[in-house]
Amino acid sequence: MLRIRGGRRVVIGCGGLAVGVLLLLAGGLYLLQHAYDGGVRRVAGALPTGAGRPSSTGRGENWLLIGSDRRADIPSMGARADTIMLVHLSGGGDRVSLISIPRDGRVPVPGHGMSKINAAFAFGGPSLLIRTVEQLTHVRVDHYAALDFNGFVKMTDALGGVDVTITKDTYDPKHDRRWTAGHRHLNGLEALDFVRQRWNLPGGDLDRIKRQQAFLHALAGKALDTRNPIKIDRFIRAATRSVTVDDSVSSGTLRGLAHRLLQTSLMEYLTAPVAGTAERDGQSVVLLDDDGVSELFTAVREDRVGEYVSRNGAANSVNAVR
């Protein structure tokens, strides 16, 4: 749990990087709008048009946030969303609920049959990914934002690195990183490899989500505690250069978002319910729990996530991860 000014409570559970970055970015833009807003990229056509989208309930606001190794305003074959999450801002303004959707979740992708959900971005960019998420959740996406992980290194280094706690020794063959148990101080490149790893983690991509949330906890905590104006300036500039939003997001939208995020009393992170893993078409996939997904996103549509959390529990410890 991360406590920040005013006694607000931020519960970090199964989430990812982008919402914390968006929180800090929005806060920076709220304070220094004219200095930083010009660095934020906006992509036309990110939000789908035409019939077939869920109707807006008027109960809160929903953002689709992704993290990717490639610029989210230039989708191309092979560019996939590495982190996918739906963020619900409650109508009452008292809570923000981030719901991580496993990137290997096997779902129907409009026009492409059953596939991993992150493939939707490669097939059709933000618009198709949003359609896929809306079809899965029946929740209308109001806005889109994406974090380019290549700028993530500079964001981390701008703060002088961050500290995490690892519970067990593990080796990542893809990035040739050996992580030893204990407290670790990570610079930008180390942090990027830390949040990317899924090989040799028992839960694979689900454990990677836990690493992402643990790093977010550390990153947000350090940014909020930093009093050095030069570090804050470098961090916000790196964040603005790494974020892409849909073209309906104005500086006023970001200012309003910042005000809301900075005033909310509770931020909670959840994960779309998972039934298990399997192999389909020669690929390892995550099978979502249809009944659980329906229950969770019904709560989102009806703006009753608090009731869902009371029934099912939420929030994972981020103080130490595998």
Structure report:
By secondary structure, the chain is an alpha/beta fold. The protein has 10 helices and 17 strands. The strands form 5 sheets. A 9-stranded mixed sheet has the order 1-2-15-6-5-4-9-14-3, sandwiched between helices. Strands 7-8 form a two-stranded antiparallel sheet. A hairpin with a 3-residue loop joins strand 7 and strand 8 (113-116). The protein is globular.
What structural class is derived from the secondary structure elements? Answer: alpha/beta
Give the neighbour order of strands across the main sheet.
1-2-15-6-5-4-9-14-3
What's the SSE pattern? Answer: EEHHEEEEEEHEHEEEEHHHEHEEEHH
Oligomeric state of this protein: single chain
Radius of gyration: 18 Å
The counted number of beta strands is 17
Give the number of helices.
10
Query: Roughly how much helix do the residues carry, as a percent range?
Result: 25-40%
Distance from first to last alpha carbon: 18 Å
Mean pLDDT: 82
Which geometry do the CA atoms define? Answer: globular
The percentage of residues in β strands lies in 25-35%
Unreliable stretches: 1-16
Largest sheet: number of strands, sense, barrel closure: 9 strands, mixed
